[in-house]
Amino acid sequence: MQLSIIIPVYNEEESLPLLHQAIHDTLEPLPETTWEMILVDDGSHDGSLPVLEKLAQQDPQHTRVVALRRNFGQTAAIAAGIDHSCGEIIILIDADMQNDPADIPMMLEKIEQGFDVVSGWRIDRQDTFLTRTVPSRIANWLISTVTGVHLHDYGCTLKAYRREVITGFRLYGEMHRFIPAYANSVGARIVEVPVRHHPRRFGKTKYGLTRTIKVVLDLFTVKFLLSYANKPIYLFGGTGIFLILLSFLTLLFLMIRRLWVGIPVTTSPFFQMSSMFLILGFQSILMGLIAEMLVRTYHESQSKPTYTIRKVINPIKGANGESAAAREYTDE
Ligand code: UDP
Ligand code: MG
Fold first, then answer.
1. Same domain, yes or no, for 213 and 244?
2. pTM for the complete prediction?
3. Same domain, 52 and 143
4. Which of 68, 142, 234, 257 has its CA 20 to 30 A from that of 222?
């Protein structure tokens, strides 16, 4: 097995040597495993980068350091780490030692059992209750309900992925937490495992309540992309048809009222609302059509298939399963 451990680092100088040692201690004894850790310095302004440079020098076989030019945020740091890794299994973990590297072997066992995503769940979370744990519970419930992928702890960084289920997904904003939902959309098998969680020993957390708001906003994007990225007309067109119906119903109400009670149609504010619904309805359908064209540009310009394959048995000669499928798609 080839593992890549991806670690985003922002001002964590004290914990880095401990973390490095802990990962070594955990992974060294594993049989038939080659591994690397990619530490991404996310523009730290304490001594993190020099510490990382030293670790990379001492341990060139296992340690790779990627230093970003400024602070881009945890998600971007994780994306950079994944881009600079080559393992078939990718494990994300925080640099602050709140996650415990000792949980990694147990997660690898789950991968070996055939799961594509192993999601850590901080059952006994060691963060401030009111400002961290409670908002996180609400966010987890919301994300689970909206995406249909029910996990207790989207926010826990410690998760393991098979590389093939997360490539093809660009990470924006705070979106690393939505990787399991994306993986589910390409057919990944997901399992949740309880993991340990420790209080922060050094430095302080980089986040507060505002992150929850960002996460909720990201959820809109993710839901749209997961459910409608291939068929945007269903969303826009559906809204459009609803608005046009609403417009006709309002008009009908006004006409019946005119006939029975004698109140004139055109002077009522409902009349203006009805025309507005009609215009918005048509606009929405037209926007849906534009979105449909964008989707086609996206898929056809990059020869991206509209499906994902687990495996092909007896594939076309000379090509592996995936490229054969790609060829069939572009030939079409
Ligand atoms: N982090 C990062 N860039 C940032 C903020 C955080 O790379 O802009 C890293 C940080 O060093 C840590 C992880 O992301 O390894 C999680 O951050 P933190 O521990 O502050 O979050 P919490 O555990 O409190 O949710
Ligand atoms: Mg932390």
1. no
2. 0.84
3. yes
4. 68
Tens digits of residue pLDDT in 76-134:
999 999 999 999 999 999 999 999 999 999 999 999 999 999 999 999 998 888 888 89
* 239 in the same domain as 186: no
With a Cβ cut-off of 6 Å, ligand 1 is lined by: 8-10, 12, 42, 71, 73-74, 77, 94-96, 98, 205-207
In which domain, by residue range, is 7 found? 2-229+305-329
Look at strands 2-9 and 190-195 and give their pairing.
Answer: unpaired
**C-alpha 223: how far from its chain's center?**
11
Q: Spell out the residues 6+ positions from residue 166 whose beta carbon is closer than 8 angstroms to its own.
A: 82, 90, 179, 182, 183
Give the up-direction half-sphere exposure of residue 215: CA atoms within 13 A in the CB hemisphere: 23
Domain count along the chain? 2
Name which residue sits closest to atom 22 of ligand 1, judged by CA: 205
Structure token pair of residue 241: 């048809």
Same domain for 40 and 149, yes or no, is: yes
Residue 22: which CATH number?
Answer: 3.90.550.10
Same domain flag for 26 and 130? yes
User: Do 296 and 309 fall into the same domain?
Assistant: no
Give me the half-sphere count of Cα atoms (radius 13 Å) on the Cβ side of residue 49. Answer: 12
Separation between Cα atoms, residue 253 and residue 227, nearest integer Å: 35
* Cβ-Cβ contacts under 8 Å for 136 (sequence gap 6 or more): 125, 153, 155, 212
